[in-house]
Amino acid sequence: MSPIFRYRICVSGAAETSHCEKRALILAKEVGKEIARQGGILITGATTGIPYWAAIGAKEANGLSIGFSPAASEKAHIKTYRLPIDFFDVIVYTGFHYAGRNLLMTRASDGIIVICGRMGTLNEFTIGFEDRKPIGVLEGTGGTADEIKKLIPKMYRGWGKIVFERDPKKLVKKLIEVIKKERKIK
Fold this sequence. Notes:
Blueprint: E1 7-13, H1 24-37, E2 40-44, H2 49-60, E3 64-69, H3 74-79, E4 90-93, H4 97-107, E5 111-115, H5 119-130, E6 135-138, H6 148-155, E7 162-165, H7 168-183
Parallel strand pairs: 1-2, 1-5, 2-3, 3-4, 5-6, 6-7
Helix pairs in contact: 1-2, 1-7, 4-5
């Protein structure tokens, strides 16, 4: 029996992961599995690194994985951007490079999970924050994820709808609780 997909959850994280904590890719895979297990559709930037490992996890848990590509076509996605196509059920070729892709991807999501990350992840986080999206941060993964708690107070905008957790299963559960509250799903 296939799961009922209720939540569109974006995993945002570093495509290049040399600065991430050692277990970040394994944890990203677990987040992808948990999104699928807990009734979510995984949304990513259809890229390598953290998003790719989340897609692997979602597929291993028989979940649905949608990638938003910066490219305008499959050919450009593979040849120009050098991005993968496996582990995605659907790839939306936006043609808007990374910044435009980030906007579409985060807006298509009910919530966002940040794992490790670099500048692009920070961009996705700030779009989600400005749009008042529920956001989960997987702490202890390095990069952007581990800087958010220090950054938020310095921005003088409050904490928004951010949940922090070190455990993938608990993080996805907490994020879905915030999404349910937002959508008023019983």
